[in-house]
Structures are given as structure tokens and as C-alpha cells.
Amino acid sequence: MGLTLKPLINYRNKVNKSGLYPIHLRVTIDSKQDYYTVKMPEKGIPLADWSGKEDAWVKNTNIYAFEINKEITRTKKIVTDLNKQLFDQGKKLTFYHVDKAFDFKGNRLIFNDYFKNYMKNPPPTVHLTDVTWEKYSGFIKHLDNFNPKIRFDEIDLEMVARIKSYMANQRGRKGTLMAPATVKSYFDKFRVVLEYAAKRDLLLDIKQVESFFEEITIMVPSKEEGLHLEIVEIQKIRNVELDDRYPSEERDRDLFLFQIYTGYYYNDLKILQRKNIRKDFEHGYYIISERDKNGNAAIIPLFKFPYATHIIEKYQHPDPESKYLFPESIFVDPQAYNRNLKVIAKKAGVHREISNKIGRHTNAQMWIRFGAERPVLSKMMGHGVESTTSNYYKVNILEVIEGTKDANFEKLGI
Known about the structure:
8 strands
């Protein structure tokens, strides 16, 4: 069995405003890796204080160099001693043993505790966005209500079926039964963690886990056709007369239009960075960026929508040093946003169920309706399987200008 240990600083390659970065011990067992936090007197150290040299990882320029280097050595010794102990017992070291020796909270054999630790310390390859976190958090809340202490040795086909049945009968925030799509999104997180526990820690048989979800499925009705606004409905929303006493209505109307122009979800607008907004000298504003959800490059010709310029210039962050295009203050809870959209739609005479998600669907259908070419639409939407770098090489503003030349939204007044 191969065991290697390597102390690393800032292994996730994040940029911290404080300039201080944590240190982790990378543990590799049979080509599989995980990272364990090294305890330090402060939140971290500057990158410049890291040498990476054996037994002197932190330079003496750091006042805590001795303490931190000693802690790294101690952390490594825990793993090596554990490995030797298990070897002498004729057993194999697994991450189960390493977790137990370090910072696992709760009972390692209780699935609920395992699930919460997965959320707290996800695998290095897993990035839990705010939306994904809500799904994991929603599932574990329901599971704890079902049974707060489910042992791994209790999980079988019958147990999984009972959990599915329980979830399907739970009510959401509105007091109605959760939609099948919501139940499935929660149930999918259940499967992810079960499979992880089986593959990584051998707490279950992976073939059995896979068979559970082959036999127990959640049917989600196909999305109904027409899950987008028609041009006449966009015109009504664009031209609706709103009450000046409620400026939040105009703000949310404008943000919704910006969703339609960009194909972004509401949460995407919150993290849209100023550096991603470019201005072509001939045509005007466009966006070039990586979509947060899938990491694929996207390029969006905002110049096709004159009102987009007004939105950018009206709502952009007042601090020119801010990396974000829009200030956090203009955003509200998504539920409140959706409620405002319903009020706006009613005032505009749009008789359709409306929410922030419909903006992205409308964007795609609108481009298709006015002749945008498929490869260009794919790049505007951020679709594709190639790496981010490769996509940037292949996406360019001239291609988008040419591929959308027949789409003229200005004359439509939207």
C-alpha cells in the first residue's frame, strides 16, 4: 500500500483578503487523496513565509515558525504511527481511520454525522455553491426529522425506500408538498454521499448502493413547453408603469430584464465581476466570463439590447475598486425577488407563472427565434465540455457579432 504525506499551503489556490493562508496535510493512500487541517496559532500565514522544505516548512521570518513546524511534524506523525499500528495488526490504513484520528465530529458509523462532516469538509474536487449547499442542508434537515441516528449497517433497500417515501410527503416553505424535482434534488445528495462513503471508506458495498438507486427512482415530469416569455410579454414588462413609491419594483424589473439579456440566473448577477464587462469600440457592451455553475466560458453580446447599457450604468457598484459589477445592496432574498416579479408581471398584464429562472430560458428561446447560430448560442450560454482555457481560445467577439447579425432586438423596444 502506498502512503505519502505532504504539507501544503493554500492547496485550493484561493485569494484571501487577509493575506493569511491555512496549511493542510495532504494524505495520499493508494492514489486517493484527502486534506487535513494543521492547527495554527493564527488563521494562517503569508505565502512569503512558506518554504515547503522538510522540517522547516515555515520560514523563521514568521514569529510562529517553531510552533507551526512542530505541529506539522506532529500531524504527520499521527498518520505514520496509525499506519504502523494497523500494519502490525494486519489491517489496512483507510481514510476512515485518518478521519477518526483527526477532526471528524460525531459518530463515524452514523450516516447523519457522516453527511454533516461531508458538508463541512467536502472532497477537494467538490465545490459546494450556495445553491448546492441549500440542497445538502435541506436533505439533512429532513433526514434528521426522519431519524437523527441512522447507522450505516441499517441502510438497505427498505431503508432507502422509506426515506424516499418520507421525503415525498414533506411540505416546502409554502406549506404544499414539495415538487418531485425538489425531492429528487435532495435525494440525489443522499446518493452522492452514500456512494462516497462506499467508495472512499468502504462503509457500504458500492454495488449495493448503486442497486438501491436503480430500483428506487423519483419521476420528475418533463418541463412543460413554453417555459419562456414571448417577445410581446417582454415588451409589456419593459414598458410597465410602476409605482414610484416602490423603487424595489423598478430595480427588480430591471434585474429581470438583465437576466433575459444575459441568460444569467439571479445568483449569477450577484457574482458578476466588473472585469468581465467589456466595451467594443464599435458595438458596445459585452460580457466574457466563466459561468459559476459549470466553469465553461461564455460570451454575451449585451450591445444587442440598448436598455442593458442603462441598467449597467444605473446600478453598477459606486466603488470603482469593487470587483463586482453590482453592489450587494440591490439584491434581496430570491423568494422576495420572485414575489416582486409576480407583482410586476401582474401590473404588466403578463398572465403566466413567472420566476427568476424563466429569464435564462427566455434568453435562449429568444436567440433561437431570431436566428442565432447553434455553435454561437452554445458559447453565449456557456455550454460545452472542453476545458475553460480551450473555450477561451475558441470564443471571440467577432464570431458572436457575425453569428447574431440577423437578431435585431432594438427595434422591438425590449
